[in-house]
Amino acid sequence: MHPPVIAVDGPAGSGKSSVCRGAARRLRLRYLDTGAMYRAMTWAMLDAQVNVEDPLAVASASDAVSIRSGCDPAQPSIHVGDVDVSGPIRGDDVTAAVSAVSAVPAVRKRLVALQRAEVSAAQQAGVGIVVEGRDITTVVLPDADLKVFVTADPAVRAARRAKQDLTLGKAGVDVAQTETALRERDAKDSTRATSPLTQAADAVVLDTSNMTLDDVIETVVRMVDELPHE
């Protein structure tokens, strides 16, 4: 078959990144974290002291931002210009501002174009790609070979995110506060006017609440293996 394009959506903390990276490694595909791209744009806005609550200011400033994604699932990277922002984009300041920046239509239009370019590059290289985000199955890649919506109970997602934050060295992580923040992020992402988080009608839903990471990766790999050959 042609190099497969796998589109994966889901809310924050659902395990998309770990699942997509694991599946991409198993299938020897490229991997693109579109959420990191929006976080990188947000970092750039904060670094330039742009008011992220002013959509016109964000739209204007975003034109000059150069974002480059590394698509190796074993070691994905994200750069703004020549600056590796893989670490800084996970900070609390970026997390608090990313929904506002992501909701700006000009930002989404620009980044969607970059995302589709990465997919085209993977296909031209004969490799294929796993792309994760919140509007991949519905907006960015509606014709993907496989669409998956990864979700989990909010309490489970909060526990996972809190554990991840502790691993990153963040002190005083509170699971209850993390769950509240995730629910607020869900509400913002699902109700924004441009490219809201929604489940595509033809997406396979994977509720990972009671599944191990290996189980979910194996499920995705099996679904890819079962795709029809041309």
Topology of this structure?
Blueprint: E1 5-9, H1 16-27, E2 30-33, H2 34-47, H3 55-62, E3 67-70, E4 77-80, E5 83-84, H4 92-102, H5 105-124, E6 129-133, H6 136-140, E7 146-151, H7 154-167, H8 175-191, E8 204-207, H9 213-225
Helix pairs in contact: 1-9, 2-4, 2-5, 7-8
Task: Describe this protein with a few key phrases.
single chain, 230 residues, alpha/beta, Rossmann fold, 5-stranded parallel beta sheet, 3-stranded antiparallel beta sheet, 9 helices, globular
Quick take:
With 230 residues, the chain is an alpha/beta fold. It has helices at 16-27, 34-47, 55-62, 92-102, 105-124, 136-140, 154-167, 175-191, 213-225, and strands spanning 5-9, 30-33, 67-70, 77-80, 83-84, 129-133, 146-151, 204-207.
Structure in words:
The protein is α/β, with parallel strands linked by helices and 230 residues long. The chain has one domain: P-loop containing nucleotide triphosphate hydrolases (Rossmann fold). The chain is built from nine helices and eight strands. It has helices spanning 16-27, 34-47, 55-62, 92-102, 105-124, 136-140, 154-167, 175-191, 213-225, and strands at 5-9, 30-33, 67-70, 77-80, 83-84, 129-133, 146-151, 204-207. The strands form two sheets. It has a five-stranded parallel β-sheet with strand order 2-6-1-7-8, with helices on both faces. Strand 3 and strand 4 (77-80) form a beta hairpin. Helix 1 (16-27) crosses helix 9, helix 2 crosses helix 5 and helix 7 packs across helix 8 (175-191). The protein is globular, with a radius of gyration of 17 Å. The mean pLDDT is 91.
